[in-house]
Write a structure and sequence with these properties.
By secondary structure, the protein is an all-alpha fold. Helices cover 85% and strands 0% of the residues. Helix 1 runs antiparallel to helix 2. Keywords: Chloroplast, Plastid, Ribonucleoprotein, Ribosomal protein.
């Protein structure tokens, strides 16, 4: 799961680096990771 999100992260980084879309993506990714920790 972590590898998948990392590859997605790398792809997005290449597509639109520094854009608002990328910032939102990374932000939601962090939240998703935190919530997954709480669920476990």
């Amino acid at each position: 799961m972590i590898k998948n999100s990392f590859s997605l992260f790398q792809e997005k980084k290449g597509e639109n680096r520094g854009s608002v879309e990328f910032q939102v993506f990374s932000f939601t990714n962090k939240i998703r990771r935190l919530t997954s920790h709480w669920k476990l």
